[in-house]
Amino acid sequence: MSATSAGRPERAAVLCGTGGWLPRRKAGNDELADRLDTDDAWIRTRTGIRSRHFAAPEEATSDLAVEAGRRALANAGAETADAVVVATTTPDRTCPATAPLVAARLGLTGAAAFDVGAVCTGFVYALATGAGLITSGVASRVLVIGADVYSRIVDPEDRQNAVVFGDGAGAVVLRGGHASEPGAIGPFDLGSDGAHEDMITVAAGGSRLPADPARTSRAERHFVMRGKEVYRHAVARMAGSARTVLDHAGLGVEDVDRFVPHQANLRILRTVATDLGLPFDRCATHVETAGNTGAASIPLALADSHASRVLRPGDRVLLTAFGGGLTWGSCLLTWPSLPPTPEPSHHGEEPNP
């Protein structure tokens, strides 16, 4: 990283806290197999997933985001933030955004708050946005949350997708600092290709096609993904974006200590790692017990890896994601020294606000 003209280190956004939250209800493969005419072996072979968590009927995306955000702020030793950015595909409502409600429930009324929609790449986009708010001087501390309740948009009778997706939220806190510090975020690579926007979609519910049952089919009102095509694009885009970030940083794959990709499914994770030439034991995974949690998957994997001490201070961490849009993105950071945290699935006696 370069120095400023005044000789001071370059300003950067620094990760200083992490937290995750999974709903209490845990659903194993056998529960879904009975309904979907499949079995545990088929699900594990295709996805590597053993279980996932589902939000209760009264829980919304904001509820999960608040819990993850509270944990991240506590881990950072922070009581305030100047901005809250929530990456989600499943906002509480079409209007307004979910982030202002999350901010208010966390006692951050008055902070800038808005949502980012980039599907499963959403957290990387939100992280870049939070970093930009800090480096531009707009904010000194930003809470970045990825939260999704896919159980609301996935058809429970869809054998291909119902076994893959789960609900959850993960969060990080960024503060202003310098590029030479552990926890400094960047560089980034972000991209999109809207020519393939129908590859991952919920067709109804927007301004183009309102979710009127009289005018739309069941499939149009639920999440649809063309799996084989998505697999090819995901592998190519995640690996390509990861290489771009490493090139920008002047680093090679051998310099990566921990690889944290979007937790799409275990097959994609293994293929991307192989394509990059990374040993799979450097890959942080959370998909086995949480499923694909969309924008929450990377921050949940970070929180889980920190809680289990898989991530160690000084580790050079590579993040990469791919999602609907199509969108993709990657970034680098060096893991800082953070206080211990509970695992995202550990609920303890913490009350809901």
TrEMBL record:
Q: How does it assemble?
A: Homodimer.
Listed GO cellular component terms?
A: cytoplasm
Recorded protein name is Beta-ketoacyl-[acyl-carrier-protein] synthase III
Q: Name one GO molecular function term.
A: beta-ketoacyl-acyl-carrier-protein synthase III activity
- Which chemical reaction does it catalyze? malonyl-[ACP] + acetyl-CoA + H(+) = 3-oxobutanoyl-[ACP] + CO2 + CoA
The enzyme's main class, written as a single word, is: transferase
Domain notes per entry: The last Arg residue of the ACP-binding site is essential for the weak association between ACP/AcpP and FabH.
Enumerate the InterPro entries for this protein: ACP_syn_III_C (IPR013747), ACP_syn_III_N (IPR013751), FabH (IPR004655), Thiolase-like (IPR016039)
Which species expresses this protein natively?
A: Streptomyces atratus
State the protein's purpose: Catalyzes the condensation reaction of fatty acid synthesis by the addition to an acyl acceptor of two carbons from malonyl-ACP. Catalyzes the first condensation reaction which initiates fatty acid synthesis and may therefore play a role in governing the total rate of fatty acid production. Possesses both acetoacetyl-ACP synthase and acetyl transacylase activities. Its substrate specificity determines the biosynthesis of branched-chain and/or straight-chain of fatty acids.
Q: Hey, what's the signal peptide range on this chain?
A: none
